[in-house]
UniProtKB/TrEMBL annotation:
GO terms for biological process: GPI anchor biosynthetic process. This is Endonuclease/exonuclease/phosphatase family protein. The lineage of its organism: Bacteria, Bacillati, Bacillota, Clostridia, Christensenellales. Residues 39-272 form the Endonuclease/exonuclease/phosphatase domain. PANTHER family: CALCOFLUOR WHITE HYPERSENSITIVE PROTEIN PRECURSOR, PGAP2-INTERACTING PROTEIN. It holds the Pfam family Exo_endo_phos. GO terms for cellular component: membrane. GO terms for molecular function: endonuclease activity.
Length: 283
């Protein structure tokens, strides 16, 4: 109890978003390219250095151009993944943007990260809807969540790469909206304002069912790589292979990108599976 009280007292207030310019640096150039995207929750709280080393090898071996990673610890966090960022960026995916979620337990040492083997620019991070203004004993376990966006140039063509990790608690906003659906709506509306023609969104959405993706599934602008018709498991509830869950996904702008294939890669490196999606541009 003493440790918990101290941790809570040391917390910051829930942050607010500042100004950003989503149009800055966007060229809107179109071109014929093919590229590979992975989404991977690395479960930093349960990771060992060996697991992180192997996860980096797995991502590099996939040929990924863009990797959206969740549950990443900043180097020096003091947990098992004490050199997580430097390890994950020590191979082909050596450019990165890390954004802390300001977890109440890990300060600014825990968050999400986008990595790439290509040129990266125009990165920013925004906090997602959150139902409370200040941490209390009753809500301290509900960490603020973020979405990041970065422009990645592949063979002269920019791709707007979004990454996020949504709420899992089942809590609601003051208006009664499920928190993760309010967060999903925020990300959707943000992406609609992006002038970059090629967009992808990686993430652990902690979806309780396909309805949680409804804002994207009903859109004429975006599509899911893992769908009710072609579900790709990314998690097994209680570790039971008979209880697959489809909580991770790679979402893309369907008017400008064609999904070539999507699949998972089973391993014991995390409690999640790595999702991979391959795309080519539509012009």
């Amino acid at each position: 109890m003493i440790l918990f009280t101290f941790s809570l007292a040391a917390c910051k207030d829930v942050p607010q978003n500042g100004e950003y310019d989503i149009t800055a640096g966007v060229t809107e150039a179109r071109g014929d390219i093919e590229f590979t995207v992975v989404s991977y929750n690395l479960h930093s709280g349960g990771a060992t250095q060996e697991m992180i080393d192997k996860a980096r090898e797995q991502i590099d071996a996939s040929g990924a151009d863009i990797a959206g990673l969740q549950e990443v610890d900043r180097d020096g966090s003091g947990r098992a993944g004490d050199k997580m960022i430097s390890t994950l960026t020590s191979g082909a995916m050596n450019n990165y943007f890390f954004a802390p979620t300001m977890s109440y337990y890990f300060g600014e040492d825990y968050g999400i990260m986008t990595t790439t083997r290509h040129e990266m620019a125009g990165s920013f991070s925004l906090f997602l809807p959150f139902p409370y203004e200040h941490p209390t004993l009753s809500n301290a376990l509900i960490e603020p969540r973020v979405v990041t966006r970065t422009l990645i140039t592949i063979d002269g063509v920019q791709v707007a790469a979004y990454n996020t990790h949504l709420d899992y608690t089942g809590k609601t906003m003051p208006d009664g909206t499920l928190l993760r659906r309010a967060q999903m709506q925020f990300v959707y509306e943000l992406m609609l304002t992006d002038p970059c023609p090629y967009q992808i969104l990686t993430g652990d959405f902690n979806a309780g069912g396909w309805d949680d993706f409804s804002v994207f599934m009903s859109s004429d602008k975006y599509a899911l790589s893992s769908t009710p018709e072609n579900p790709i498991a990314s998690f097994f509830t209680d570790g039971d292979k008979n209880k697959p869950a489809y909580i991770d996904n790679i979402i893309y702008s369907k008017d400008s990108l064609q999904l070539v294939e999507a699949f998972n890669t089973e391993s014991d490196l995390s409690d999640h599976l790595m999702l991979t999606a391959k795309f080519k541009t539509i012009n």
